[in-house]
Amino acid sequence: MNAVMDTLHGFGVSSTQYLQTHYKDAQGWFLFVSFAADLRNTFFIFFPIWFHLKESVGIKLIWVAVIGDWLNLNVHTGGSMRLLTTSTVRLSPLNPSGHAMGAAGVYYTLVTSILAIMLSKEKKTSSKGLYLRGSLWTLFWTVQVCVCLSRVFIAAHFPHQVFAGVISGMVVAEAFNRQKWIYSASLKNYFNITLFLLSFAVALYLLLKALGVDLLWTLEKAQRWCVNPAWVHLDTTPFASLLRNMGTLFGLGLGLHSPLYTESKKSSSAQVRIAFIIASLSLLHLFDTIKPPTHTAALFYLLSFCKSATVPLVTVSIIPYCMSGALGLQSKKQL
User: Fold this and answer.
1) Range of the domain at 293
2) pTM of this prediction?
């Protein structure tokens, strides 16, 4: 087994060296791809757009992203520190690649959802269906290849880790394609699932720590040896990711069961939905610039949970309700 892993790691190092040597001019592109593949963009961009276009797709995106990342965090028995730039120390697990897994899960969900919507009345063998399938799946695999190459290029992952991430992400997305209960889950279900996922992850951490395995060992090392402690970002730790995900899932449940959401559903015209999308993206962009203070870890994690919960809550209920009221009032004035 050690020989196999040594071979994989040796191939990984060679792959990184090859990419960095022969494609060094593409560094900006690879860094952009890694940024674009971050799950943050699913919550702040894809979800607001798709929730207002097709509610079920938006809901499924959140479940796939959150559960996929939760599984990714819990399959690790350790963390790893890596220096990506001169000003940022990231602390996160390595195998499988979270970026590759997240991108595969999210884009697989989008592709299969678009195909289901566009081809619901088309024959599977029709020329339109074949063309659309071919185009979307080509785009899907193009994105996955770019994400995988970007993670190998910046030495964040080995090739086998990004490959495992892509396969894992597709499996999670396909599993949720078959789940219908997520669209009618009660607030109690959201609360219980959030509590279970959070408790399980914390219990696993405590168990491993009792056995002598500290998953946050990289944080202490980085804070001790990093030239500038400010470069050690708490938002890249496993706990930060866990609380962001749990906050997002719980916030979705709050939004879907809010009285404001019930009222806002009365407005369903295309123009109104586009207005919802623009307002959601604009407000969330401003909201994303607010960074929780990092001087106290406990406070940072708590505020990260609350901030993440606010994102779907605002998108699902608050913005549609406020804009529906404003548009309704404007219509009355015109009459």
Assistant:
1) 15-334
2) 0.85
